[in-house]
Amino acid sequence: MGAVFKADRQRKCEVAAGPGVLLVKPSTFMNESGLCVGPMMRFFKLDPRSVFVIHDEVDFPLGVIKLREKGSAGGHNGIKSLIAHMGTQEFPRLRFGIGQPRGKGEMIGHVLGKFRPEERELLDVTLGKAEDAVLYTMEHGITRAGNIFNAVPG
After folding, report:
1. What's the pLDDT tens digit per position in 47-101?
2. Among 130, 1, 137, 121, residue whose Cα is nearest residue 55
3. Do 137 and 148 form a contact (C-beta atoms < 8 A)?
């Protein structure tokens, strides 16, 4: 979209404006994403249903994306923080599969680490699919987008 991100230290994030959209990247730890999103939502008087969240999903293998209109945190600490600070779990999201860690007790390293070289091609394809899903959602809504992109095999 050609948007340039600028730091908003007060709200603990980076913000960029694009055509018809405000892009926000929390600068907090992922588990504290709500510390940014809640205040941004209130400052701009946004309905939670207009806040579109994109997050990693270890329960899906790399290559799988899923759109959801609303739902629980499902064990995802960043989503727990968003729900707590937004006061609702009714916000749309795109879940981006990153798969399970290979060994026990390696979750932090897996989630925060880099993708392996052999995953790069699939990662690039999946990022393109996720971008298409987000843009389609912006134009047609989450329900229609989900009907199309959730049906695409990984």
Report:
1. 999 999 999 999 999 999 999 999 999 989 999 999 999 999 999 999 999 988 8
2. 130
3. no
Distance CA(148)–CA(134), nearest Å, equals 12
pTM beyond 0.70: the answer is: yes
Other residues' Cβ atoms within 10 Å of the Cβ of residue 43: 11
User: Helices marked H in the chain — which ranges?
Assistant: 34-43, 77-86, 107-112, 120-140, 142-149
Instruction: Give ∠ CA 147-75-43 in degrees, rounded to 5.
Output: 75
CB atoms within 10 A of CB 58: 16
Q: What is the pLDDT of residues 104-126, one digit of tens each?
A: 767 777 788 888 899 999 999 99
Instruction: Identify the CA nearest to 58 among candidates 37, 34, 79, 38.
Output: 79
